[in-house]
Amino acid sequence: MNVTAKFNDVCAIRKICHGFCRFLFLGINILLHFYCIFNESRCMDGNFLMKGMWGFVVFLLAALLFSVFWQEDWELANQQVTAVRFGFYRVMGVEALCGIGVACFAWKGFRFHYLDGLVFLFGGYLVGRNWLCGEPVVYRVELILLLFLLYFILRVLFSLYDGALKVVLLTFIGAVGVECIWGAGQLYGGVASGHALYRLTGSFFNPGPYAGFLAMGLPVALAFFLVRRENVRFSGGKQWVYYGMRCLAGGVLLLSVMLLPVTMSRGSWLAALAGTGVVLGKHYGVRGRIGRLVSGRRHVFIGGIVVAVIFFLVVVVGMYGLKKDSADGRMLIWKMDMLAMQEHPWMGVGSGRFGGAYGEVQAAYFLSGKATPREEWVAGVPEYGFNEYLQMGVEGGLIGLALLTGILLGALIRLFFSDDPEGRAVLGSLTAFVFFAFFSYPLGVLPLCIVFVMLLAMAVTRREENSFGKEKSGNELWRKWCIPGLALLVAGIIWSITGGKEEERRAYVHWREEQSYFKMEIYKGTEENYGKLYPFLFQQPRFLFEYGLCLSRLGQYEAGSRLMQEATCLSADPMFFNIMGKNQQALQRFDLAADYFRRAAATVPTRLYPLYLLCQMYFESGQIQRGMELGKVVLDKEPKVMSEAVKEMKSEIREWINKNQ
């Protein structure tokens, strides 16, 4: 079977999986919706028909948001990321339309909270900082703006009636259940993975975000599994719905606990422990018990603290030893993050430009000679900061970091004093997100960003504050016109962003078509087509690399170097400097070429390719003595991964040295 046939088979399998997951998700959540509406609403005062209608609206819009996870479009380049993005654009158009209608009816039950102001201040700062201070990464700014507008829509949506949060959380459990089934299919065969190097990724492109999603869903499932019968309203004595809900939550809980260890994501393990610990503590009233223990048996309390600290240290040491190189690499990344923050302390470098800032700082650090051999060994070129707080400090500066921290602390404190099951579920899930963000990049993955926005909107909208048709204190006339007016403004902004995306989508389709010619090294003609796509894809580092390489191979060295230089502002990959060095070498600018090769070698010291290119340039330009000295260094250097390419490079260098001795 040839490669094309295998690829088509994989695509067919993934399409079947996407269709099955959508069908399963819809079926599960329709049942959950009818549970929430026809069981709980009958026990509440008010218009049952209206509550049922608005409950269905809540369910539909929540299900649409989760359906973004399973978007597919095999015509797109980098389809696993871009398909989700364009699917989010389409869903946001529907959300905006429904948001207008909902705001016209929900204005009586809605009131602003100080966290709303903080969220909009944060969103306004990020968007304004990127547009006013330097060239913005347009698609990243658009996504940031859409996510903050989604927060407003959800806030209004959750103000409909007091069953809205339950509908959304049960929909969340249904989505986690579908991801668990998908992951189990990958683990036991029959379902294609989203990454060639990993077996378990769910619908994500990497096991890290997949594990983070499970870790955020696990506390929600636990909270609903532990819910007491007296906290659930029944109609006609039909208590079987209570046991059905517990069975569903228990099944998702069990599958999540089984799959999380297989992902090997230590950050998600800690996040899941923190989230479930908070849910258990709230459910069993641990705070009150600790208070009684401290006042009555202080020595037992101190002993428990000592045992807990020892247990925590043992767990941390064990997790460090499990993947030592990965842990050391993560600490180096955090160190570089903090150095990058020092370069741009207050307002950062801008959203989407983390990679360029990181590469510059890491190269300077290794060139300074301060790095240890261990740091050189574990160095890499990450796309993310693997700590959302540090990455926010790099991209948004201390101002952005302070606003993000304030929002998270405010939401957690508000949830901490909530005693209803929905509040415990949101508190546990948001706690898991906060912990997971210390070790990974959830805000760099659009599906996890959507979940975070939903959790934040639910945290601000407490259950006891929801009321369908009940007027809140304050100026009725102001709310009556302000809320629908803001909803109309939000919808207009969303439609202006999402309305013209078809041309951009076609650019990604054409890029994928041209990539086949690029991989076959057919550069003539490909560079012309890439030039037509440049206005749409000029902020995609991979596209800039391919386009620039086409120009370089056709002798257009200056134009190719300009594109590579643009890419270095967005990515830390040293290959851009390798190509720029080869371009300068072709133009007989050997000193400038050597600088580029040294910069590439300093970014990731364990890579031999930049040193190989520099050594080759020395010999070809007549700098024999320098070539001999560098060649001996390269031959003695131990690569991180020994491959056939490394063996060939060392063999060629050995031949050059022998030839010139």
Architecture overview:
The protein is mostly helical and about 650 residues long. It is built from 27 helices and no strands. It is globular. Mean pLDDT is about 80; it is low at about 1-15, about 20-25, about 30-45 and about 465-475.
List the helices and strands and how they pair.
Elements: H1 3-40, H2 48-67, H3 79-106, H4 114-132, H5 138-158, H6 164-187, H7 207-225, H8 240-263, H9 266-283, H10 286-296, H11 298-322, H12 324-343, H13 354-367, H14 373-378, H15 388-416, H16 421-436, H17 446-460, H18 476-498, H19 502-519, H20 526-537, H21 541-553, H22 557-568, H23 575-586, H24 590-603, H25 609-620, H26 624-636, H27 644-660
Helix pairs in contact: 1-2, 1-6, 2-3, 2-6, 3-5, 3-18, 4-5, 4-15, 5-17, 5-18, 6-7, 6-8, 7-8, 7-9, 7-16, 9-16, 10-11, 12-13, 12-15, 13-24, 15-16, 16-17, 19-20, 20-21, 21-22, 22-23, 23-24, 23-25, 24-25, 25-26, 25-27, 26-27
